[in-house]
Each structure stands twice: as C-alpha cells, then as structure tokens.
Amino acid sequence: MSESNVPLPVPDVPLNFVPAKEGEVLKIGPMTLRIMEDGSRTDLASRLAFTVPLDEQFTAVSTYDVLFANLLDNRLGSVELIVPPHTAGPPAHWHEMHDETFLVTQGTIRFHVPVTPSNPTEKIIDAKAGDYVTVPTRSPHTFSNPTGEESRFFNTFTPAFYINYFKLLSNLEKEAGGFGPELNKKAMAHFATLPIPG
User: Fold this and answer.
1) What's the pTM value of the predicted model, to 2 decimals?
2) What are the b/e assignments for 60-97, b being 16+ CB within 10 Å?
3) Among 8, 1, 77, 68, residue whose Cα is nearest residue 38
4) For the chain, what is the HEC assignment?
5) 115-144 mean pLDDT
6) How buried is 147 (Cβ within 10 angstroms: 0-12 exposed, 13-18 middle, 19+ buried)?
7) Nearest to 40 by CA among 10, 5, 12, 14
8) Given phi > 0 = left and psi -120 to 50 = alpha, else beta, which region is 177?
9) Tens of pLDDT, residues 32-73
10) How buried is residue 55: exposed, middle or buried, by Cβ count under 10 Å (0-12/13-18/19+)?
C-alpha cells in the first residue's frame, strides 16, 4: 500500500449531549441563561494527532506554538437565553475579540444597532422565531424583548471565553444585591467588550 493510501486512524473524541433540562443555569437580572457549551469540550489543540514542525528560527516553544494553540482552544461557546416580556438587554456595546450568533427560537428579539459613522440613525431589527443574526467582532449592538411574551434565543461565541462574562455578571449581581447597566459595564470590561459612549 502506498503512503498516500494509508487510512487515517479514526479519532476517539466523544460528543457532548446536553439534555433540554440540563446545563449550568444563571440568573442575570430578569433573564435566565443556560450554558450549553463553555468551550471546554472544543479544545482541538489537545486532540491533535500531529505536531506542527518548527523552522530552525523558532525555539522549542515558540510564539507560533502559543498562538496556534490559543486559536485551537475553547473555540465555541453557546447558551440559551430566556428573556421575559418588556425586558431590556445589556447596554449597547461591541466586542473586540469574539463573534456572536443569535438564533431566535421563541417570540421576538429586537436588535438595536446604535448610531455609527456609517449608520446615522439607530437601526431596529425585529428577529422572530427562526431568524438568525450574526454579530461580527467590532459590530455595535444590543437586544431587547419589547413584546408582551417571553422570548428565547440560542447564542454562540467564538471563541468561547465570553461565557465567563455571564458567570462574572451573575456573581457581581449576587454580591451587589441588584442588577443594572453599570454592573453590566463592569463585567464587560473584563472581556474585551466596550460600551457605546453616551
């Protein structure tokens, strides 16, 4: 058998199943958040069956290795967020280091796109069940539920480190005995997320 016809070994990596009533649940103000993937099961670096060859210019542990490993670690996080009727979301903001997606699964989620140099007036998008929104890095946004009915959405984060923002915010809320925009901004500051001034 020639080298090009050698079959690759079948990987032995388990999938992760989160039943509908499981996952870590956090309260954030009036909203309920269920963590479905915190990134710990999307660490490709530890599962690679090969090593990256280094040029002679690199040391045994190079910057390239560190950057490469970071790109492969905690690649995806996901949550389900339950938003009660007439509930505002976080202060308008943008993320410097991660992308997000939103799949509305129940009700309506209103996305607010604040005024920017290319957007002279606030833009409103009412996403209904089945609608999908992608928020790339550095895209200003926030959301709310302006309706009289509960809404839900499935939210992803790439990379997954932003899951820890929700954990921090939930803990800060417990310590402060309340919830508000300033608490939210304080938590955002730890996760490369900047509020819109004003």
Assistant:
1) 0.82
2) eeeeebeeebeebbbbebbbbbbbeeebbbbbbbbbee
3) 77
4) CCHHHCCCCCCCCCCCCCCCCCCEEEEECCEEEEEEECCCCCCCHHHCCCCCCCCCCCCCCCHHHHHHHHHHCCCCEEEEEEECCCEECCCCEEECCCEEEEEEEECEEEEEECCECCECCCEEEEEECCCEEEECCCCCEEEEECCCCCEEEEEEEECHHHHHHHHHHHHHHHHHCCCCHHHHHHHHHHHCEEECCC
5) 95
6) middle
7) 14
8) left
9) 999 999 988 887 665 554 444 444 444 444 444 444 555 567
10) exposed
Give dist(CA 198, CA 146) in Å, integer. 22
Token code pair at residue 30: 């009036």
CB 174, CB 122: distance < 8 Å:
no
Tokens of 93: 């903001």
CA–CA dist 35, 161 (Å, integer) = 12
